[in-house]
């Protein structure tokens, strides 16, 4: 019985980690090619904005509670 409960616990921990850390959503924006990938605990934004004189390109990671904010709010946090 102990072995069976350990296996169930291990499977539960793996499922919880997969739910929290596996990205589930990708958004593309028409500002030059910015993409946003979101999981429940973090968000990765690959900024690619084309300005008047230059192109801004950088990758940023935002953790809770900022990971569910709109792309415009994240841009204000960044700048």
Helix tally equals 2
Provide the domain count.
1
Which class do the helix and strand fractions yield?
alpha+beta
Helix % is 25-40%
Assembly context of the chains: single chain
Shape label: elongated
Cα distance spanning the termini: 56 Å
Describe the structure.
It contains two helices and four strands. The protein is α+β, with helices and mostly antiparallel strands. It has a four-stranded antiparallel β-sheet, with no helix packed on it. It is elongated. It has one domain.
Notable characteristics:
79 residues; alpha+beta; four-stranded antiparallel β-sheet; 2 helices; 4 strands; 33% strand; elongated
Topology at a glance:
Blueprint: H1 2-21, E1 25-28, E2 35-38, E3 42-50, E4 55-63, H2 71-78
Quick description:
With 79 residues, this protein is α+β, with helices and mostly antiparallel strands. The protein has helices at residues 2-21, 71-78, and strands spanning 25-28, 35-38, 42-50, 55-63. The protein has one domain.
